[in-house]
Write a structure and sequence with these properties.
Two copies of one chain form a homodimer. Chain A has 324 residues and is α/β, with parallel strands linked by helices. Chain A is built from eleven helices and 13 strands. In chain A, the strands form three sheets. In chain A, strands 3-2-1-4-8 form a five-stranded mixed β-sheet. Chain A has a five-stranded mixed β-sheet with strand order 11-10-9-12-13, sandwiched between helices. In chain A, helix 3 packs across helix 11, helix 5 packs antiparallel against helix 8 and helix 7 crosses helix 8. The first copy, chain A, starts with 7 loop residues before the first strand and ends with a helix. The mean pLDDT of chain A is 93.
Chain lengths: 324, 324
């Protein structure tokens, strides 16, 4: 098969699940596959699941693994995309894992590794929320707050390869160390903690009535249900998080003169447009200059598939660049 | 003269003075010239002073204006570098001035226009503070707080052409509109206002003793003198501004994974290293990840000449690109 028309595989490697897809050279999903990650089983077991998932998706797509032009993977954590190494992924219990090299040995095709939010933003920008933008920030609100940056049409890594980490920018410099960043104040984890604390302190909430003391399993969709039903306590906590995200988004838009921000992640997907609109409203009041108020903010559309498409796209781009 | 060896002119167009320099193709200053800006005389008068300044510098360098490969200008305010238009420059009382076109008609050589801090950062990066960096933020602390960004080795403009405006990022979202940004809290103007207000309220300060009621002419160098002499009141106000600049710098370093920040402008030049070190210390505590703590922060070295060199460099780069 000629390189330009070869299919590629994209993998979104999450802490809980991995989504795998074989994607045609013109970005149509040919076949999906899914595996549990089960990080507690260790590196070799995860690698075996990736390999078998890729093989399954290829079989479904009626191709051989050797027909793939390459494989792209988005991994949750710090990644060196140039050397294909996962530097640190807390959810996977990985440190300095040469993922590209390991998988290339097993699968005999080129493997490209990047951060999961980076590849999701790439996927959203190309296929998801609206038209392509040259300058775009992705903000993923879930367990933590992740970010990814496209500048001048390309993923931007910066000197220490950590660019885009908006979740780790500081909102309250005088707060204690564990309570000063965007992530500390706006993640789903924080939102749930605050709601639970207020309910435990005796405040009324329809969410409190529903969970009836089962404080350990409050999911994004539970928060969303009571937010959308206008529960006062849940609204106050979530709106406060959205307003603070708005400050961080505004500062990124001002500093980089961004035309678009895409917001994704579990909490965003569960609540949807009202959450994104609240962030937008907060940010619009704070950006500079007047021109920046025209920036656009959208909810991610591809959801689970953003990572698969973005990873495949990145692999297509890098493999073509390497052959130039 | 062959294009590659032609000299260029660089102009740093300030609200008070303009610095002009004829620079060789390998970035040696061949001849300087200086003019008052006198913005109150209007556009035509300023243009006439630019033209005569360029002519004088060329005469001193023993060349004709027509020998120049091009002219670069840094203007204080919002600039459209692609069309060579000064969109808005409050200090010059200009709005939508097609500066490149006007000067090309008068001088018959290509003219490139950019923001003054952008060209200063470019000059500093190439010739000034330390080795060249691919990713660098410039923060200019004077009347206001200006900024400029180099990413992947090139000036970064963003979608609305306003990238780098760190002075307009928000520190205190809940403050009133005129008191929430970095500029509102860290400029020389604010520092002086605060010092004066505290002295007027009866607090002791050696600066207060020196100015003896003449509150309207407190310059950067007066502030610097009493800061360096360890006056408690001046130190508190200036250190607070530096600490807040540190927060904004940290967030920019985290978001962009920057390797270097260069700090310039009137207040920085007057106080020097202690001011820059204070910003560095504050920022280092707040950046993420650990790797980002290796970022470097330096005081501008070229001072007045940064703009002249940067403007000439930009013109060299753009004219060569256009000929490709």
């Amino acid at each position: 098969m000629a390189t330009m028309t070869k299919p590629f595989a994209g993998i979104d490697l999450g802490g809980t699940n991995m989504q795998i897809g074989v994607v045609s050279h013109d970005l149509k999903l040919l076949a999906p596959a899914k595996r549990k990650t089960k990080s507690e089983d260790g590196l070799d077991a995860i690698i075996a699941r990736i390999v078998s998932g890729v093989q399954e998706a290829c079989t479904t797509a009626a191709i051989k693994v050797s027909d793939l032009g390459g494989i792209g993977i988005g991994a949750p954590g710090a990644v060196d995309p140039y050397r294909g190494i996962v530097l640190e992924a807390v959810n996977l219990r990985w440190k300095d894992v040469p993922l590209a090299e390991i998988l290339e040995k097993r699968l005999k095709v080129p493997v490209i590794v990047d951060n999961d939010v980076n590849v999701a933003v790439l996927g959203e920008n190309a296929l998801g929320a609206g038209q392509q933008s040259a300058n775009i920030l992705g903000v993923w609100v879930g367990t933590g707050v992740g970010g990814g940056l496209i500048l001048n049409g390309k993923l931007f890594y910066g000197h220490f390869l950590s660019a885009g980490e908006i979740g780790h920018t500081i909102l309250f410099p005088n707060n204690p160390k564990g309570n000063r960043s965007v992530e500390h104040n706006c993640s789903r984890t924080t939102v749930v903690d605050r709601i639970v604390r207020l309910i435990k302190s005796g405040q009324k909430s329809s969410l409190g009535d529903e969970i009836a003391g089962d404080y350990d399993n409050v999911k994004s969709r539970t928060v969303a249900k009571h937010y959308l039903a206008d529960d006062k306590l849940v609204r106050e906590v979530v709106d406060n998080a959205a307003d603070l995200l708005g400050v961080a988004v505004a500062n990124a838009v001002t500093l980089l003169s961004l035309e678009r921000v895409v917001v994704g992640g579990g909490l965003t997907e569960a609540i949807g447009k009202p959450f994104v609109d609240r962030i937008h409203k907060a940010a619009k009041e704070l950006v500079f200059p007047e021109a920046c108020r025209k920036f656009d903010i959208v909810a991610s559309k591809l959801e689970d598939n953003a990572g698969v498409f973005g990873a495949a796209m990145l692999a297509i781009e890098r493999v073509r660049e390497a052959k130039k």
